[in-house]
Amino acid sequence: MPLSLRVLLVAVLGLMAWAYWPVTRGDFVIDDYVFIATARMVEAPWAAFWQSHFYEPFYFRPIGVVSWWIAQRAFGLNYLPHALINLVLHGINVLLLVVLLRALAVRGWALLAGAALFALAPFSLGPALWPSNRFDLLATGFLLLLAKLVLVTLVSARMTMPLLAALLVAIAACWSKELAYPVATAMAFMVLAARSASWRRRWLVFAALGVAIGGAFAWRHLILADAYAVVMGNPLLAIGRGLGTLVRLLPGLASSALGGERGVFWLIGLGLLLTLAVVGALFARRQAQTGWDRRLMAEVPPSFGVLAAVTTVALAAIIVQTPLAHLSAPIADGSPFGTITFLRFYYAPWAGCVVLAAVLLARAAWPRALSMAVLLFAIVCGVWLRPLGKSFAQWVHTDIRPYSVAATAVADRPAGGEPCLLVFLGTQTKHPLFRMFSDVTVKARAGSPEHAWRCFVMTESTPWLFVFPLATPLPEWPMPKITNPDGSAKPDSTWSTVRYRYRLPPADLATLPGARFFDWRDGRFVEVTDEVRRGERKVPSRDWGM
């Protein structure tokens, strides 16, 4: 890469850091607290590789869980380094994308445009703003590295070490997030179409990748009793609904991420540029067939086979994530957190789309002009995206942190004997996300775990889960157990030295014996247990409805 383009790439990464930086002043929210509380209670995180470790038994993601354990032990509740981890991971992924594009014969301005589009667009930089989206960043990074290693394996004189590295990276990707299974499988099948290698080598690489991906999946299936519980209904129908929902939500997501109507303009402009790239790629191919002077191109562009392979892998990433668009549509409510949470499902698909766009730009008849236009759009996008991180940080500090800190202060104070049940009222409408993760929030923030970790913490509804050290004796409160789809009661989930418990609230919370009640008044939780016991304060339970 010429020195001038290297300097511009560094400038793009600098702009990415500038756009990201406001979110480093934020704080943790919902799922973050699950991983922090678990990391504090787990003594041996390596058990995640052979035990079911997620708070819902549908996922097997030991790489991400171990990364959270290491980060928590290193930084505790200091949010800045946790946020910087995501920034560094996203930056590494941008560099991995650059390395992959070079291996695909993408050069010059097309390469820089692709790097900028991945570094600064809302579908990539947006998800990086929330620490819990680390699983997507890890899986995508491993997939980008896997693609590069596969290409090296196909052309290297000595293929043993690159192939072994590719197999390990494939397993790491699959054990970071489930979307990697179909994407890595699509890559394996594309190996068979690589004419640059012999049939023997192609079949060897394909078979080895199949064994690695299949082995990772078989191990996951062996450990998870409900490995397929989240797969519901007709998959083709789910994909169709997801695509329709995603198309419908795109303008709103762009507006939320980039600030008003300009987000829609950015989408329209980018769509027009990429359409021109497609037309330009077709025009360039036609001109090549009629003897157009290819010396006008700085490098030999990616072949049509590369374009087809990249398209196939990108479609695999898009298809596997589209059902989530329909299932998670309520999340995209226009708020900063809703936008960031929804965008996380499309971090990996966006990486595939960016690789495809860069290949198209490299093959176009006017690669420099189109690439510079895309680069300009990406830069504008990075500037417009900066307020999203700022809004997210402000929202956390005004709507999340006060309740979290106040509830933790109550749990840290020793009061009464064993057992302990704390009910925080007044949060059902004011703080819907606190009620879903009230218990893990307090356990993660606890300054006196010897007091806080023995308590059940809830609001007008029970949280998604209660978490305790495995050795803590737990009483059976009169709270119904959650019922599985097959009619059985949902059991406790344990791994290493931690226990997850799942319960529903009774109809009347006042019937909970020994519970202490607190109401949100004037910016703090005030105990109202006597009012509840005398019947002056009614405390009916509620569900999680917003």
Description:
It is a single chain. The chain is globular, with a radius of gyration of 25 Å. The termini are far apart. It is 61% helix and 6% strand. It is built from 20 helices and 7 strands. The strands form 2 sheets. A 4-stranded mixed β-sheet has the order 2-1-6-7. Strands 3-5-4 form a 3-stranded antiparallel β-sheet. It has 546 residues and is mainly alpha-helical.
**Biggest sheet record:** 4 strands, mixed
| Helical segment count | 20
Given the helix and strand composition, which structural class is it? mainly alpha
Radius of gyration: 25 Å
Q: How much β-strand is present in the residues?
A: 5-15%
Assembly type of the shown chains? Answer: single chain
Sequence-ordered SSE layout with sheet pairings:
Layout: H1 3-20, H2 31-41, H3 62-75, H4 79-103, H5 108-120, H6 122-128, H7 134-155, H8 160-174, H9 180-191, H10 199-223, H11 235-258, H12 262-289, H13 304-327, H14 336-343, H15 347-363, H16 367-412, E1 420-425, H17 432-436, H18 438-445, H19 449-452, E2 455-458, E3 466-469, E4 493-495, E5 498-501, E6 516-521, E7 524-527, H20 529-533
Parallel strand pairs: 1-2, 1-6
Antiparallel strand pairs: 3-5, 4-5, 6-7
Key descriptive features of the protein:
546 residues; 61% helix; mainly alpha; 20 helices; 7 strands
Summarize the structure.
This protein has helices at residues 3-20, 31-41, 62-75, 79-103, 108-120, 122-128, 134-155, 160-174, 180-191, 199-223, 235-258, 262-289, 304-327, 336-343, 347-363, 367-412, 432-436, 438-445, 449-452, 529-533, and strands spanning 420-425, 455-458, 466-469, 493-495, 498-501, 516-521, 524-527. With 546 residues, it is mostly helical. Mean pLDDT is 83; it is low at 227-235 and 285-298.
